[in-house]
């Protein structure tokens, strides 16, 4: 398993396609906490459940003032179809070209497999990683760790 | 670990003083939960009075169109003392889940379909369902069904053999149930 960036480290900025014709930079979200959820692939069973879970918990993330971003190496057209099929209400970013570059910068890329780890980061309003977790790739990490980290930010 | 202890406010079958309590977080529209339903029944038959069973709602309402309404219907039935009849009927008729079925089932368990319709429209039981859901999230529920045996998440297969084994261990270990202390 990769060594993902630990708490205390500034979150590497990035700009990725969020739709086929729109890009989003992490720095644009400065001023509020951001949850980065790297995941292996659209459509695979575990990822689907994981994203479905975050979709259900969006009101709690919102209550804590946080944005949630899903990130995988799937292209933006694929993300669009996946998000539409599952009714997802948060952005999915494409770490597509150069493939996996952003995941690599977070230590969350599986070189042998060519896709992202199932890795979670909570970035604070100042752009610093405050919590990170890398789950076994076949295990849905749930959301309790993220919610706890977000609550700890406001302490 | 289960972070929301079992209380009398839960829907519970069996003796509150049973040495082992099995808690399920489930979704009435989830096919895996549908398959787990007869498994739970078999496990309950196996242990009899030695096992208490608690069901809590974990509807993935964005993915399952009728899951939330089904959960609210079970809660509606619960306030009229008909929770388990409705719970069983929802899983047994899962393939036909929809607004029409919910009203039919209300009548079938002796409740008013009109009252149910009004309760669903008013979202009268939404807060209860959401409270179950969030408690599940905080306990590490990451999908359905998720089982806890005396408060410890069961990560093995949701089949009879696996659950019986874990419950036997919990019973033999004599560890305190979630109600203890």
Q: What would you note in describing this structure?
A:
The complex is a heterodimer of chains A (155) and B (181). Chain A has 4 helices and 9 strands. Chain A has helices spanning 45-63, 76-86, 101-105, 144-153, and strands at 15-19, 22-25, 34-38, 67-72, 92-94, 109-110, 115-116, 118-123, 129-135. In chain A, β4, α2 (76-86) and β5 form a beta-alpha-beta unit. The relative contact order of chain A is 0.25. The model of chain A has no long low-confidence stretch (mean pLDDT 94). Chain B is globular and about 50 Å long. In chain B, strands 1-3-2-4-5 form a 5-stranded mixed beta sheet. Residues 176-181 of chain B have low confidence and may be disordered. Chain B has one domain: Glutaredoxin (3-Layer(aba) Sandwich). In chain B, α1 (31-47) links the parallel β2 and β3 (51-57). The longest helix of chain B is centred in the N-terminal third of the chain and has 17 residues, at 31-47. Chain B has helices spanning 31-47, 67-79, 83-92, 99-108, 113-121, 126-138, 160-173; strands at 11-13, 20-26, 51-57, 146-149, 152-154. At the A-B interface, α1 of A face α6 of B.
Strand-helix topology:
The complex is a heterodimer of chains A (155) and B (181).
Chain A: E1 15-19, E2 22-25, E3 34-38, H1 45-63, E4 67-72, H2 76-86, E5 92-94, H3 101-105, E6 109-110, E7 115-116, E8 118-123, E9 129-135, H4 144-153
Chain B: E1 11-13, E2 20-26, H1 31-47, E3 51-57, H2 67-79, H3 83-92, H4 99-108, H5 113-121, H6 126-138, E4 146-149, E5 152-154, H7 160-173
Helix pairs in contact in B: 2-3, 4-5
How many separate domains of chain A? 1
> What level of helicity do the residues of chain B show?
40-55%
The CATH topology of chain A: Glutaredoxin
Say how many strands of chain B there are: 5
Structural class of chain B: alpha+beta
User: What is the gyration radius of chain A calculated from CA atoms?
Assistant: 14 Å
